[in-house]
TrEMBL record:
Coiled coil ranges: none
Signal sequence region: 1-18
Ranges of compositional bias, category Basic and acidic residues: 67-92, 183-212, 228-243
Domain of life assignment: Bacteria
Protein name: LTXXQ motif family protein
Positions of the UniProt region annotated as Disordered: 47-92, 170-212, 224-243
Keywords of this entry: Signal
Length: 243
């Protein structure tokens, strides 16, 4: 745990810095880039937005590289962790996050001139608002958005919308219960528990598929399975890119 906690503190810089300078595109539009390529893209964006000169570009590039190295340490430490942080560790982590963010801000302020720094802080504020509004939705909001998309893609009638809405709500409730159970646990699941969880998820998926098949007509179900396959393939590609 100590190793994980220290690594988390080191990792904060890259998270805050990357989020500050580059907005995340939506899931299907997210580019599949290596860490080095993402750093280069961040740098290009900053160069364009803030009109960085060559010296500033080198300084910002170094800052990004350092934080990328810290991010790698964090990922390795997270793999080695067997337990979750205590409340005291979380509180210390929260304070350290604030300190790291302030340190990052100070470094950027030292690199940029007054006008550039003002614009950079404005970009951070704009992204923060976008990130909160666009990326964090309640389960109910996600279900409603999903239902609206299915209604459009599959041309659902009123009765089908009601049934699919209830199905999505039931699934969200199960997922919330699973997440709560994992949060309440102080240790990571064993290999046997992971296998059992995977098996249960497969059974739940089959049950969900069966219920959708009973709600949709033949053409709608065929189109829905095609949409599911496309989504699954994109998720696989995204996971491969992160490896």
């Amino acid at each position: 745990m100590k190793k994980l906690f220290i690594a988390v503190l080191l990792f904060v810089g890259i998270v805050s810095f990357a989020q500050d300078v580059n907005q995340k595109p939506a899931g299907d539009q997210r580019e599949k880039l290596t860490l080095q390529q993402r750093n280069e893209k961040h740098l290009q964006k900053l160069t364009s937005e803030l009109n960085l000169d060559k010296k500033q570009q080198e300084q910002v590039k170094q800052l990004l590289t350092e934080r990328s190295a810290k991010a790698e340490k964090f990922r390795e430490a997270r793999k080695d962790s067997k337990t979750k942080p205590t409340d005291a560790e979380r509180e210390a982590f929260k304070k350290q996050m604030k300190a790291e963010k302030e340190a990052n801000d100070a470094k950027m302020k030292a690199i940029l001139n007054a006008d550039q720094y003002t614009k950079w802080t404005a970009l951070k504020k704009e992204h923060k608002g976008h990130y909160r509004k666009g990326d964090f939705k309640t389960p109910q909001e996600r279900d409603q958005a999903h239902l609206q998309k299915l209604t459009t893609d599959l041309n659902l009638n009123a009765d089908q919308q009601k049934q699919v809405g209830e199905l999505l709500s039931d699934r969200s409730t199960k997922m919330a219960m699973l997440k709560k159970s994992r949060r309440d646990s102080d240790v990571k699941p064993t290999d046997a528990e992971r296998k059992a969880m995977k098996k249960q998820m497969e059974e739940d998926h089959k049950a969900f598929d069966s219920k959708m098949k009973s709600i949709l007509n033949a053409d709608q179900y065929k189109k829905w399975t095609a949409i599911q396959k496309e989504r699954k393939d994109k998720m696989k590609d995204h996971r491969k890119d992160k490896m």
